[in-house]
Amino acid sequence: MAEQKKPADRGQSSRFLKYSGMATQMLGTILAFTYGGYKLDEWQQNKVPVWTLVLSLVSIGASLYLLIRSFTKQ
């Protein structure tokens, strides 16, 4: 006999999926921008990794902005 999930359990699991999806999106955005900056620095043969620093900071800012915006919509 399979147990039925209570409505409260479904809400908790959907919140978990929502927040884990947001975390995955943030991580993916930060990694993609940082990798792009690394490749730009490699292509331009920069001694100081300017593009890596700039794009990683931009991606962190953008990820935090999207996270805050999603919380305020609720």
From TrEMBL:
Pfam families recorded: ATPase_gene1
InterPro entries on file: ATPase_put (IPR032820)
Stretches that traverse the bilayer: 21-38, 50-68
Keywords: Membrane, Transmembrane, Transmembrane helix
Protein name as annotated: F0F1-ATPase subunit Ca2+/Mg2+ transporter
Naturally occurring in which organism (per UniProt): Dyadobacter beijingensis
